[in-house]
Structures are given as structure tokens and as C-alpha cells.
């Protein structure tokens, strides 16, 4: 996956060349101008991305009478939402809230999500949040009307709100070929897909957008690649960017936080990647980014601790089932940690660096620290950035207490060079085995042995003198010993393209780019976690892109 990321991610030189219009402030916002483009296909609205924002956008545009083409680079629909928890906290007085006697209003939704005491929303664009609040209830009813089924239980309070709003979608079916991994998110996207197809939306899968086509006045379409062939698709009314964000594009995400180097896992993979396709294409024609400080605000779900260790893809809400059609790409399921008292976490040189049971950004910042990387080297070998891998170290006693089975398909042990899980009869042998694309240097056996011995002394003393882990409980002393990949995961995209209340993309001069819309994690301005923001903005983008009122006279 590192190779895939490196080939997919835009190079620094390429990024600044492609985005020169952004930095140079060239007159007229220089970018791809293709008045002579010969289109192969045509629709009123073209949606790029078939996930939790693209599907509502497509349906809403059809409901307005527009013809719609949706493209997606994956072989199937759903995006990251397919493997999500299906958690949809939308309020404002929905029919399901009323069923359970919950009183709510759009104003209360707005107040809850602009409360300055809530750090997650403090830096939000209030125009966007106002629109989002007003559209909460209509969007929830839209989901019900288009087939989404929710668990019939009373809603709960989340996101620092004051009113119960959270409902969870039911998984679409028990068939992993339909749901990919049985996640509740399938109950959102599969029903929306069915509705979209029934309403006449055209889907073009395995189509990757490479360019937004724009003439002197407005966006007129896109260019995409499919099976090595270039295809031009006309958008008579508008193009909607719903490509899912940028977590898998290393160079792009490092604009917001330089620490987010290639070793960090990304949520939703290997099912889908978020490669910043939409953002880059929009930047090519002068689009602006928005609310970028939210990424490094140390709140929310930009970076999360993994609870599935010893596997490449440890998405916190997803444990890969061996029966999933994606399991061959996932490689292993991982071991799910119930109690971090059962492990210690060490960096690439075998040192403990923080309290293992901590879930806060203090823990994440420690993981993102230099962690033994002194930045030595010359030319391409010099690498001071990057915290390096984090390894969970444990023993046979831990395995017994946690009820783990440290064998395939849960883990693939002792793969030299590309491994995520190692075992040995001694700590010295374990350190010698650890080898990984992100392990910049061999782990010194002596350091690992000393780290374990020191931690064991803390268990005897009942106090962690180094990092204040509460009452260390278990020694690491019984062979075999294990090392499991436990590096944090990049989760939500909390910054993206600047949009207005109509989800129209705004350029670096503060002007609307006619014909271009954006929704979902590719859009910036509102750092709300998960599905509720992307669904609402997708529905609004579809309505506005299809509206004849937004078209040139």
C-alpha cells in the first residue's frame, strides 16, 4: 500500500506546477480551458464519486428533473461509507425523533454545532453550519423516502449536542458480497444506489477523473480515464466533486500537518482510497481551500488510535472478515485490543514513549513525534519527518487474557521486509525479526529488553514512573513474545475546498466558479465527524447543480 500511495500521491514539484494558479494569482485564474473539447457523453449533472455525498447528490438532481451521470474510480459504489458504522445523527425535528418524543429544531442544531465551548466546531464556517442545520430534517426524511432503514431504537446524544439525534442504519443484508464487510454503512449506500438506479441515474465505475473541463465562462464537464482510455463527459448544468477527500495522498495531507507521512494507515482501505482527485482538479482551475486549521486542531477524528493491531488496515470501526471479497487485499484481520494494560507500545528503536491506555491527542502527538528518528542521512536517504512505526509488544500471557489467536487469518507472522506481525521465543530474537517498509533502522535488541525490564519493574511497584500508566498490571515475561503493528490511522478529512451555502466552489479571489459544486469530505469549512455533514451537503449540491436558476442566462 505504501507503493500505491507513493505512485498515486502527487509529487511536490507536480503539485506546485499544477496548482500554480493558486499561488501566482494569475489574471483570470489560469487553468484548463477547453472550449474545443469534443464530449463523448453528456448529462445535465455529472457527479464525481459514488459515496455518501455523491449518491444523495445524484438522486436529488434526478428529483429536480436533471439527467445524471455518476463516475467512480472503484469497481463498486459506496466509497468509505460502505464500511462505515452507519451512524447518522441528523436532527431538527425528524419523524423518527418525533416518534420517540424528542423535541428539536433547526435553530437548536445550529446552536449545538456553533457552541464556542465545543472545540470540534469552533473554527467552522457558520454560513455552512446554518445551511446544514436547516437541511438536517429534510435530509433525514429524504433518506427514509429513498429506502434507508434505521434501527428502531430511541436516538442518543452525540457530538456534544443537547438533543438525542443519533440513529444507526441497518446493514443492507447478511451477504458480504453485497455489504463488503457487513457494516451498517451498507444500509445507507446500497439503498441509495437502488433508488438512484430506479430513478435513471447512470453509473460509470472504474472511471477516474483527471481534469475538470472549463471554458472562459464556466465548468462544462470532466475528463476521466477508464481502461487506459480517455473519456470526456459534458455537464450541461454542473459538475459535483464528491471524491471523498485526501487521506491517502501523502503530499496533499502534509500541507495541513507535515507529520502525516507515509507510514500512517488510512481509514476505509483497501476498499477505497481518498487521493484528493477532486481537490487537485479544482485547484487546477483556481479553487481555494478552506478552514485548513481544523486538521491540526487536535480535536475530532483527523487521526485516531487503532484497536486492531498486527494488520496493515486497522480502521477503528472495521475488522476485516476473512469471508469479505476484499480480504485478499486486506491480508489479515488483526487482533482487537480490549485492554491496553495487556501491551506496551514502543517506537521503532524499542522505547516506550507514552501511557498505552491514553486515548487523547497527547497519545497521538507522542506517536507522531520523532520517536527515535534523528534525521540522519543524505539525499534521498535523509528522513527527519515521520514518527515511524509503533509496535505493540506483548507475551503469551497477554494472548491468553485477551483471547487472541495469533495465527492466520488474524495475523501473518514473521514476514521479513513487509511484515505487520512478528513472534519469537526471546525479546532479542523478536527485535531482530522486525522488518517493515517504514522501519527506518533495525530495532536494537538491548533497547527493547531494557524497555520491557523497566516496565516489568513498574508492575512490581504498582506505578509507571515514566508515563503514568494507571497501575500497570501485567508483566511481559512469558514466551513467545510478539510485536504487532499499532501505528495510528488517518480518519476524517477536516479541510477541503471552499464552498458556499449552495455548495458552489469558491476560487482564491472569493468568487464562485460557475458550474462547479463540491460536497462530502472534499469540502472544507465544517469539521463534523462522519456521515451527517457529507449526506446533507451532497443532497444540497445535487439540488443546486440541477437548478436552472443557477445556470447562465
Alpha carbon gap, first and last residue? 48 Å
Beta-strand segment tally: 21
Q: Number of domains in the coordinates?
A: 2
Q: CATH H-level name of the largest domain... which superfamily? A: FAD/NAD(P)-binding domain
Main sheet specs: 8 strands, mixed
Low-confidence stretches: 1-31
Q: Which descriptors would you attach to this protein?
A:
553 residues; alpha/beta; FAD/NAD(P)-binding domain; 2 domains; 8-stranded mixed beta sheet; 4-stranded antiparallel beta sheet; 17 helices; 27% helix; globular
How would you describe what is shown here?
This protein has 553 residues and is α/β, with parallel strands linked by helices. The protein has 2 domains: 2-298 and 493-550, FAD/NAD(P)-binding domain (3-Layer(bba) Sandwich); 303-377 and 384-490, Flavocytochrome C3, Chain A, domain 1, CATH 3.90.700.10. Helices cover 27% and strands 17% of the residues. The chain is built from 17 helices and 21 strands. The protein has helices at 2-8, 12-18, 20-24, 54-63, 95-99, 106-112, 126-145, 176-179, 186-198, 250-253, 277-284, 327-330, 361-367, 396-402, 427-433, 445-461, 531-546, and strands spanning 41-48, 68-72, 87-89, 166-168, 202-205, 208-214, 219-226, 229-241, 265-266, 289-290, 303-304, 308-309, 335-336, 344-346, 391-395, 421-424, 481-485, 489-490, 496-497, 504-506, 512-518. Strands 1, 2, 5, 6, 7, 8, 20 and 21 form an 8-stranded mixed β-sheet that branches. Strand 20 and strand 21 form a beta hairpin. Helix 6 crosses helix 7, helix 7 packs across helix 17 and helix 15 crosses helix 16 (445-461). The two termini are 48 Å apart.
